[in-house]
UniProtKB/TrEMBL annotation:
<dbReference type="InterPro" id="IPR003961">
    <property type="entry name" value="FN3_dom"/>
</dbReference>
<protein>
    <submittedName>
        <fullName>Fibronectin type III domain protein</fullName>
    </submittedName>
</protein>
<feature type="domain" description="Fibronectin type-III">
    <location>
        <begin position="179"/>
        <end position="287"/>
    </location>
</feature>
<dbReference type="InterPro" id="IPR036116">
    <property type="entry name" value="FN3_sf"/>
</dbReference>
<dbReference type="InterPro" id="IPR013783">
    <property type="entry name" value="Ig-like_fold"/>
</dbReference>
<feature type="domain" description="Fibronectin type-III">
    <location>
        <begin position="395"/>
        <end position="503"/>
    </location>
</feature>
């Protein structure tokens, strides 16, 4: 409970808040008797009161009036009380009257009777006024005596009021609960329930947490949401909580949730809603493979390969695949699926080798299901059918003859054969094939059929009729299912040979093919003894001056040896360019001689011819500090490729193989090949350059070619635009320099069309002289760039600057200077 003293009063008729204070309240204006000046009084500043009791609300209130007069106009008076809003009031201590209007009323007026006589008068005010005090709709209470003479009341006169006191009984105010500050789901993609968690909720004033209300809303795209649907109420007094919730029933759809706090004060004081910060999506079914293929389509005992591709996860990635099979006897009615395996595989396709029925006449299909990371299975993708057919018989695993060299018959035996599915062994078919060298074989020829149902057998066979020839055999198993299901052939692991002569070496070489010294090494290998051991080798030789017309073979040496290979050194012809070849034969212990084997040809080496040097010409000069040397290879008599070598002054030899960057055409070169050598930067002055060619095999050198040349310093005066006047001497210098460079490249000097004389040659002819100089430059460029097939060291194409009229400009002269220095 709290009491408040009224603080202000005013007259309504003249609309003034006036000065003058009683013991308790600011007084109002009154007139002499019978003037009927009615008084209205502002009683209380409700804004200040409510600020003090912000967390409370009024339950009852009363007004105490204290009368200090008996009442001249009756024993009782009626007053009207209402709540309103007034503005511009003076402070109670102000001594100045202030104009003001009536307050704005926010409630109806409520009339109360003030009993007659002096003293305290208590009035219980209406509920509507009490509610206005608590709601904040008004900032003051007003008492109005009205305009009737009977209702006149005032301060310090006629029925005086000396004190007005407001008493209010307050009760604590009830406030709403607060919503959770956070709300989220434990997973955003799920096949089963997830956990909804919230925290940060709080109770209100006079309103403790009693429970939480949960609702959900679904969406197809996580953007446009359906209406909220009540889910459940979680009873708890805690400020946080959790709940197991389900994703949407429709796969691929999203579900969000919202939570509000409920308190003991009832529904009017529930909190607002807190929507979950994320949503949970119902996992979608993965897609099965688009293609599943089983091979081979017809099988007996082959390995079956199942391949698939085109599978995909949806909202959850691929985890693996389920493989199952089913069987049928008519390719129409199928057994139930039999799961073969679960494969852990995240790829969109794969392969697997399943176990299948080996019963002839059985069809098999396979099903492949995609499994995602949430263990959701796709629909199955069914493969093509494969069919287990009648199988062929198994060929013998072993087959051999009893002897590899024979004059008469030997035994052929085999074992390890097998019947096929529905195909019992009935017999074995035997064929043979002959060879002259145990390598190249003739066609197979039918020999016999051995009738037996056993898995092994033998038969008497003969060697070839031709001495030295080989014979091999092959066997296949035959069964009751007929020829289509015979086994493959098994070839005998060895052969039988009719007695033969020794076979000469398979390899007989003479090295080196081109020799510098006269010693040649003969090597042979691969000799095969006949039925008699090797006794000796006989070597012969023949010579030729041109490699085409040969002398008759003559005996060179006889080597006693039983080895199948050997080496021997002989003295070859010392005549340069002479060709020699050798032949060898083998004699066995019975003096039977094999055929001859001829070696390759060897030749006494001839060095290459000296290279042809186009530039530099001896004693000539250039201005280019990185000069070009133009070289053409000569003829190499032995047909070898050549290596071009260049040496400047006393430096190291540089060659076209090890230093390809210095040659326009590099590496090993043929006869008459042109190449340009570009030197490293050289100093101005005299230089000597030496050239030679080496043949590629022996690297014997040609005759050396030596040239001397001079690198001259630049002869040109600097011509500055708009400063230097081009004179006759400048043109003459250009002519002289060009003729020097032409001589360096073994080109004839230019005979200029007109002599240039200082002070006499007219300016108008100068463009013609520049053109003539440019033609000379073009001649050199054409020769250099056309010398070889490579553009590596070519002079870049020239785009000549416009000459203009009169004396040439500085840039025209500078362009020619620059070109001459790089020629």
């Amino acid at each position: 409970m709290a009491t408040y003293q009224a603080i202000n009063a005013c007259t309504w008729r003249n609309g003034s808040w006036i000065a003058g204070v009683t013991d308790y309240v600011r007084q109002g204006v009154y007139a002499p008797a019978n003037n009927y000046e009615n008084v209205g009084a502002m009683l209380f500043d409700l804004t200040s009161i409510r600020n003090t009791y912000a967390n409370y609300y009024p339950t009852s209130a009363s007004i105490r009036l204290v009368r200090i007069a008996a009442g001249d106009w009756g024993s009782a008076r009626t007053i009207t009380l209402y709540a309103g809003n007034a503005y511009g009031l003076p402070s109670p201590s102000s001594g100045t009257s202030i104009s003001g209007s009536r307050p704005t009323k926010v409630t109806s007026g409520y009339s109360y009777t003030v009993s007659a006589g002096q003293g305290t008068k208590d009035i219980a005010i209406s509920t509507a006024l009490i509610d206005s005090i608590g709601s904040g709709a008004s900032n003051c209470l007003f008492m109005d005596a009205g305009s009737s003479t009977l209702n006149y009341m005032g301060f310090r006169a006629r029925d005086d009021l000396s004190q007005i006191v407001l008493t209010i009984n307050w009760a604590i105010r009830t406030t709403a609960c607060s919503a959770p500050t956070s709300c989220s789901l434990s997973a955003t993609l799920s096949e089963d329930n997830v956990t909804l968690s919230w925290s940060g909720a709080s109770g209100g004033t006079n309103n403790a947490i009693s429970s939480y209300e949960i609702q959900y809303s679904d969406s197809a795209d996580n953007l446009n949401w359906g209406s909220w649907t009540a889910l459940t109420t979680v009873t708890t007094t805690a400020t946080s909580g959790s709940l197991s919730v389900a994703p949407p029933s429709t796969r691929g759809n999203y579900r969000r949730f919202r939570v509000r706090t409920r308190g003991t004060a009832g529904a009017s004081y529930y909190s607002g809603w807190r929507v979950s910060s994320n949503s949970v999506r119902r996992n979608t079914v993965p897609s099965p493979p688009t293609t599943v293929t089983a091979t081979p389509i017809n099988y007996s005992d082959e390995t079956i390969t199942l391949t698939w591709s085109g599978a995909s996860g949806s909202t959850s990635a691929i985890k693996g695949y389920q493989i199952a099979s089913r069987t049928s006897t008519d390719n129409s009615t199928w057994s139930s699926w039999n799961v073969l395996t679960i494969l852990a595989l995240s790829a969109s396709g794969g392969s697997y080798n399943p176990n299948v029925s080996r019963v002839p006449g059985t069809y098999t299909q396979f099903g492949v299901w995609t499994i995602d990371n949430l263990d959701v299975y796709s629909s199955e993708k069914i493969s093509n059918s494969i069919y287990c057919d009648i199988t062929a018989c198994g060929a013998p695993t072993a087959c051999s003859v009893s002897s590899t060299l024979a004059e008469g018959n030997v035994n052929l035996s085999w074992s390890g054969a097998s019947s096929g599915a529905g195909n019992t062994i009935t017999s074995y078919e035997i064929q043979y094939s002959d060879s002259a060298d145990n390598s190249t074989w003739g066609a197979w020829t039918a020999l016999t059929i051995v009738v037996t149902s056993t898995t092994s057998g033998s038969v008497v066979v003969s060697p070839p009729t031709t001495r030295g020839y080989y014979r091999r055999f092959r066997v296949r198993t035959r069964g009751t299912a007929g020829e289509s299901f015979y086994s493959d052939w098994t070839i005998s692991s060895n052969t039988v040979r009719r007695n033969t002569l020794p076979i000469p070496p398979t390899s007989f070489t003479a090295t080196p093919p081109i020799y510098e010294t006269n010693t040649v090494t003969l090597m042979w290998s691969g000799t095969i003894p006949g039925t008699s051991a090797i006794k000796q080798y006989v070597i012969q030789q023949a010579t030729s001056a041109d490699g085409i017309n040969w002398s008759v073979y003559e005996a060179l040496t006889t080597i006693i040896s039983s080895a199948t290979s050997g080496t021997h050194q002989v003295n070859a012809s010392p005549v340069p360019g002479m060709y020699t070849r050798y032949r060898i034969s083998v004699t066995d212990t019975l003096d039977a001689v094999s055929s001859h084997v001829v070696s390759n040809t060897v030749k006494k080496n001839s060095p290459p011819a000296a290279p042809i040097i186009v530039s530099p010409m001896t004693g000539k000069s250039t201005y280019n500090t990185i000069p070009r040397f133009m070289i053409t290879t000569g003829t190499e008599p032995d047909g070898q490729t050549q290596i071009v070598e260049v040496k400047i002054d006393s430096g190291e030899w540089v060659n076209s193989v090890d230093n390809p960057e210095r040659f326009s055409t590099s590496g090993y070169l043929g006869n008459g090949v042109s190449t340009v050598y570009k030197a490293e930067p050289l100093a101005v002055g005299n230089h000597t350059v030496t050239f030679r060619c080496l043949d590629s095999d022996i690297e014997s050198a040609s005759t050396e070619v030596v040239r001397t040349f001079t690198i001259l310093p630049p002869p040109f005066e600097t011509i500055t635009a708009n400063e230097t006047v081009v004179k006759a001497a400048h043109i003459q210098t250009l002519r002289t320099a060009l003729n020097i460079v032409l001589s360096y490249y073994n080109l004839s000097p230019v005979i200029w069309s007109e002599e240039i004389i200082a002070g006499r040659t007219t300016v108008k002819k100068w463009p013609f002289h520049i053109t003539e100089i440019r033609k000379a430059v073009d001649t050199i460029i054409t020769v250099v760039n056309g010398f070889d097939s490579s553009a590596a060291f070519d002079i870049p194409p020239v785009t000549w600057l416009p000459i203009g009229k009169g004396r040439p400009k500085a840039d025209v002269m500078q362009q020619i200077h620059d070109l001459i220095l790089m020629l």
